[in-house]
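hi support,

uploading two proteins for the ticket. first:
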Amino acid sequence: MEITANHGVFHIPLENEGWLDAYLLAEGSTRQAVVICPGGGYQMISHREGKPVAEAFNQAGFHAFVLHYKVAPAPLGWQPLHQLSQAVAEARQQVALAENTAVSGVKVAVCGFSAGGHLAGSLGTLWHRNDLFPATTSFKLHRPDALVLCYPVISARECAHAASFQQLAGPDPELCQLFSLEEQVTDQTPPTFLWHTLADELVPAKNSLLFLEALMKAQVTAELHLYPRGEHGLSLATPAVEQPENQRWADPHVATWFALAVEWLAETL
């Protein structure tokens, strides 16, 4: 594996043409990291939900990694999930090296937006499945310690974002059902922070509500924030990531999600 650096960002190749951008803090900073999965409907990678979020987590005191997962051709099947699994393990190992500590001492959260939230939730709910992730070590490097799901695609049912599931599962109804994440939550799912806007018409807030309900049934620690206004895809909801052509405006109230998530991670990891 060849790791290259560009202006302080390390590029780490993954299987199937994926890669990680690593935003590592100075040695001795922290043993906590966040792997970020930008959205894009499994058709593209939203840069507004990548680098700016990594830099924000750096400023909050976390090592950060942005996953560039496979988005074409469809159907993608298990490829993005296996790339995220590899990314979490790689992030854990990179932080262990940077901090001169054991991998078991590194805590890794996965933060996903929209379809990237679905990808993060997929690993969070399925990481323990030996049929999907053969156990090679007693300590599972790919297990997320926490999830931060931002306006996530969750359900393949009545509130589904059909394009994401078509891109992921194609015409396979069994695979589509397996990727309906509210059906996959168990007590093995890590603690989860969710946020959504009630005005989101592309991926309705019911997705987050269904996931929260499943987490509660499984007695998994969770926190949900619902904001009354805001289009889908607000990212940090700050001026730096505004997208006026798609009505994605900065909103100081919605932007509070990030500080709330950081506070929650500090208590959870």
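and the second one:
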Amino acid sequence: MEGLPPVTILILNWNGKDVTYNCVSSIIRNTDYPRDKLKIIVIDNGSTDGSYYYLKRKLYQFRDVITVIRLKKNYYFIRGNNIGISYVLEHFDPDYILLLNNDTKVIQKDWLRKLVELAESDDKIAIVGPKLIFPNGIIQWSARKKEKNPFFLILQTITARLNPGFGEHEEQAISANFIGEVNTISGACMLIRTEFVKKYGKLDISLYPMYQEDVEYSFRAWKHGYKVMYRGDVKVIHYEGYSMESKKLDELEYKKFYWALRNSILVSLRYFGFWKVIIFGLLIYLFVTFFDKKDKTKKLGITNIALKKNVKARIKILKEIITEIKRRNDLWRG
């Protein structure tokens, strides 16, 4: 393992002290990366459950590797990670920064080494991601295959969050054990070349507070001539819920759906332009707003479509998104 470059892992925590502790513990137990080349930064994002002091105390024995930082308020995912990235660049300046969700678990000793080795194989590789799995072994959406067709590219911007099924029936899914270039990588575990961050910036703050920032960052990479890579022989457990659908579209779920759909449209407008979004994207947006698969493990078809609940609330979401996009037309940059 000689010659491996410095890597800093960045983990955001908000009122999830036990979840975050379990995540960090799995890294310590199951990472064979050289200790002197590895740093772990835990950003406590304005928690109110005592996370900061809990994590400082529980992780104190690993203080040579782990730093816990407290923010005064919840900056959500994008701002919180950007603050963390700035801290990493100022204090450590590693060759790579790995963004890792706190609801993940590392299970392979060589997981980080394999991701880094793939990134090191080509200077034009900006991002590398692993295979994400649920605790029961079912594969999540981890990447979307290389594609040039505008319809499928726009489809990729939205299915990542609102229709995240990954399986043999998904045309936009890739082979589970595939190793190679893809269009997009999930931000739940994303290794980023620091040089790319310095040249082309951090996560897109216009997508605040969260969602689709990983898709945008992947698109940004290939727009500037870099590669986005998937390494399917590396597995990381991700405890994220399979679907956002609930019996009642409560306030939190309403916001989540709003942010995800709005940001999908904004990313598409930015990278593909207004007319392509209208021609190729309109039906997609309407479908994901009002319809879903009855059985997410099966291929989409006439017999496998169900109308979502809370239609009136979803119509309201579309109206609000259209209003906001009109107001934020500065985001339609090409």
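thanks. also noticed: The chain has ten helices and twelve strands.
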